[in-house]
Structures
1.
Amino acid sequence: MELNAQSVEAIVRRVVAQMDSTAQTAGTIPIGISNRHIHLSREDLDTLFGKGYELTPLKDLSQPGQYACKEQCTLVGPSMRAIEGVRILGPLRRQSQVEISVTDSFTLKVKPPVRESGSLEGSAPITIIGPKGIVTLREGCIIANRHIHMTPADAATFGVKDGDYIDVDAFSGSKKTRWFDVQIRVSDKFHLEMHVDTDDANAAGLKNGSVVTVVKP
Amino acid sequence: MELNAQSVEAIVRRVVAQMDSTAQTAGTIPIGISNRHIHLSREDLDTLFGKGYELTPLKDLSQPGQYACKEQCTLVGPSMRAIEGVRILGPLRRQSQVEISVTDSFTLKVKPPVRESGSLEGSAPITIIGPKGIVTLREGCIIANRHIHMTPADAATFGVKDGDYIDVDAFSGSKKTRWFDVQIRVSDKFHLEMHVDTDDANAAGLKNGSVVTVVKP
């Protein structure tokens, strides 16, 4: 086997997947807490930051290929109150998407539905303010559903498949909580992690790195 | 039976208790969402609003004898960020107590423990700013535990007693959730209601008037 950048990456991925499998055997899934954030389309990035603008990656996220950017925007809604410093995540997407919490929705007076990422039809309108322009999305604002990213190997270990819904116990925080109907998302590009928003994490008293356990049916 | 103010009150209480029992029979408990708030001692009210100041009742709360006041204060913590417009609840108490959410605790950078109301020993310090003065509590800031107020009749119906801990399902919101270790508090002065903070309510997508059901052991 020739050792080039691509093969090294493939090996590292396999080792990491193996480490994930070990974690699964212990029956726990690490938590990743998603603060409010924005995914942008090429067109909306142009409007907000200027024609041809390129995002500046700041930090890789746990899901491979996803990264937080230096760029931030301000959100506003019908309340005429602003939430400032909302992080842009890369890479660019086909359609812009704004993910906030229910707590944020009261600040802005918007009524986003609970949705899986990318499922934006009929979701809430919202306005994004950038340094070079303003975009009002007709739809695109959601409260992200509770979901778990995992590899096909993880899915086999847990006995689930892409699109399944399971229940998990969040017992490692200060307030013991069970979350029902957590969506399973399987891809060999994923890394084992359950994503919840700040409302869920704060209600259960969880931090990044806290773990949950799958409830046996 | 002579009909005076006292006997009428006793009858109304009994009728209301009966109505509560009907609700219990259906197996549901209504939710009351507690936003951040402040209980003050006589001494701290003097410091914040001026010697001999009297609170102005604004609205009765669901628990008999408790009321929201016109008066509000500002909270600050080591973050040097302020949370303004925090409601004072009456009547006065022996010791001042500030109840906030985990979300608020990040804004203020305070680390309050999850506690039942009144259990303040070793709880977090916090600063309250009033129109006439500032009070820094050495302890008194907590995250209120999840708890259910009920009458002795309610307790009999549910088969629980004061100080018990039970589990409840919050299924009427947008994200199905189970709360474990919910404290039972029984008094003939109480009205059947489960109290949760804004983090819990928002995480489960509940509103005031939403209901929970007791999980059978």
Note: Residues 5-25 of chain B form the longest helix (21 residues).
2.
Amino acid sequence: MAAHYQASLSGVFRRRLRAIVGERGLLSARADRTVYECDGYTLERSVPELVVLPETTEQVAGVVRAAAQAGVPFVPRGAGTGLSGGCLPAPAPLMVCVSRMRRIRALNLANRRAVVEAGVVNAAVSRAVQAAGLQYVPDPSSQNACTIGGNVAENSGGPHTLKYGVTTNHLLGVELVLPDGEVMELGDAIEDTLGYDLTGVACGSEGTFGIVTAATLRLEPLPEGVTTMLAVFETVADATTTVSRIIASGIVPAALEMMDRTIVEAVEAAYHFGFPTDAGAILIVEIDGPAAGLPALAARVTEICRASGARSVRIAADEAERAALWKSRKRAFGAVGRLAPSYCTQDGVVPRTRLPEILARIEEIGARHRLRIGNVFHAGDGNIHPIILYDERDRDQVVRVLEAGREILAACVALGGSVTGEHGIGVEKMRELGLLFGGDDLALMRRVRAVFDPAGRANPGKIFPTPGGCVEQRAPRRQAAV
Amino acid sequence: MAAHYQASLSGVFRRRLRAIVGERGLLSARADRTVYECDGYTLERSVPELVVLPETTEQVAGVVRAAAQAGVPFVPRGAGTGLSGGCLPAPAPLMVCVSRMRRIRALNLANRRAVVEAGVVNAAVSRAVQAAGLQYVPDPSSQNACTIGGNVAENSGGPHTLKYGVTTNHLLGVELVLPDGEVMELGDAIEDTLGYDLTGVACGSEGTFGIVTAATLRLEPLPEGVTTMLAVFETVADATTTVSRIIASGIVPAALEMMDRTIVEAVEAAYHFGFPTDAGAILIVEIDGPAAGLPALAARVTEICRASGARSVRIAADEAERAALWKSRKRAFGAVGRLAPSYCTQDGVVPRTRLPEILARIEEIGARHRLRIGNVFHAGDGNIHPIILYDERDRDQVVRVLEAGREILAACVALGGSVTGEHGIGVEKMRELGLLFGGDDLALMRRVRAVFDPAGRANPGKIFPTPGGCVEQRAPRRQAAV
């Protein structure tokens, strides 16, 4: 069974890979490999036996073909910014990292599409087309580091998902190296899908179909005007009620983000934006579209915020202030590092009308487990991101973090929601799949996976819970040193 | 092989189905069944041996389970408005028609979703939520007849696809009766997909995964303001150039539709809207969004139209005029019936910058085959709909129609496009799949299909070309009488 591959990689196999990617495309020294022991989900770690860094699709195909012939499982990786352990290199000994595949292969501005390699950083796509008045919309908080390949694997979202949809809504096609080394083109460069939507099902498959080496992306025009607003509330409940009321009014903001007091304090301590640290919560509301329509829309948003108890509502006066607001939001995760040695970002979804309830539940769960939990999230989507603060040197705390995380996800499901909004399943959420899927559902998904990866060698041990072994698997594989 | 099922349905099998759906749920008299011999693609016809009209998911599951046990292939059908023969009942003797499953099961207005049965008519969804300021966006021209089940099967588009996306972009989940009779729920009622996006791959699978019995739909707020404009051009080339220029300017119209002189003449003869029948082409441009932004946007569109040679640009003065414009567009296909005894609507896509080229090619192809071809299409998407006029009593004309259609699709592919934008493959486009897909691609798709339908009994003889038998298959199965 691939999932239980234990053998060391042979010298012959290593030499074969070296012949494909060259000396500089291979990391075998322990010190070099340790960097790759986890992604942003740090509760489990495992150092890969070998890391290869191919620079072309041909090299990826060559490496994967060699792995197929040797029966070696592999784990694909982009920038390693994932948050659910999707590129945890266990039990796959071979890591194939596409971060050196950084070419933008083609830009077709008139028809608004770009073909980029998997290692291209998300924000680099928008930068490349900005002068033409275009953008690539999906904007994960890690957009200055995360890669398009990883975005496709995780079907990443971001603040602007609310209005514009997640990665799959902006993906026209992918170049996929199947686990037998064959290079497939799924989808195409035009808007409409012909035949089954294999691009769609590959998006979000977390590396279990093979390795995405390039993607054809849809570009969107930059909106003519953008207005970004900051509303300050005394309580989280007032802020989430406001979210429901804005949406109910028929306004579709480009983004609608909430940060609670814990997060505001952390952000303020790190960056000194001048946020009120005594407020219960703040909302960042962004509206976009034809410039002439924005003042009236901003006035309506202001009115709704005030009617829902906002202490203050402020419209960013200029681009600098606007950029500062977004910087605060996008760096919130990093700023949390000031509050505790470790943190674990959860990812759940509830119907957006249930936000007040889930936040009350999170508070109660945190108190019961003696854990501080901050909240920063895509409120308009009902996509919550409780950040659980802890110290990973304290084994008991780690156990409580895992337990609290599980309880939060179960509460999301009980409120009609789901256990992941945008971070994927990885190793973190395997057990929670059972909260939403029965055996038949999982069997169907496994059969779909087998179409692409019959031998189960592409990112084994992810997504699908191992029967009977879930609890043990969930315990940290290695207690990390700080 | 299911695809070559020839046996007649047994008396035992018929009695079993009658016990499930009752006497009124079964059509066995030839006269009743003849209605079901084709959909909107009339070049091929075949009367089903038996039509069942279940009213509940349980009945569908019972019928499908009985068919599985008897080894009988089946073809699902909604309203039969499809345009590629997706519900042509050959070679499946049993048709399962969901048009009596018309319940709206649940409306959740606060979270903007609806759960509707497969037989609910598209336009009925928007009507049901209109008072709450909401709509279901995808709007095929047949929206007053076509059903949600059929929309899901074909991943239908419509004029507003340009800004808002096709069916798959508004579909959160489906209830699917697998070919063994098992009822699966794919996706869920919240925004984000957990695990593989099986809803996405089921959408557009044209009944080859089983029978969709219900769908969870995303609702969208009605835009605050809508402005609809009519621009009249001397030539098709001027109109298509205008399309490119509007898009290039960064404006994303809600819809951008073109009709050429042939279509305008037909529409005018049928409905007397007062369109100029001497114009080369007209464009319907619709913009929507916050009301305050629309006048400036309309002025920009007007300016672009005039700069590209528009003879006149007129803004619909009121809702009545706006409704009339859309009525003209949506009834264009019907109006064409005045010009010839029969017509065949083609469906292709090109990158929108190639519209002038493809339209020139269509004109040339029509002239060479001595066929009159009208054009009415979603110009903003590059999704063309040449309507080939003919007389189906004339065998030679039928052959030329088929040949011209094939040449148009090949020309789309040569220009970097595709062979179907929104009508699906059905039986009509099976051969053309080979223009875009190699054997490996088709093998992968067949394996995906086998996950859902291992025995190949769900809508056999669709999508996938039968090796070696394409040309024969393409000839009309039965020359229709008028």
Note: Chain A touches chain B through 79 residues (CB under 8 Å).
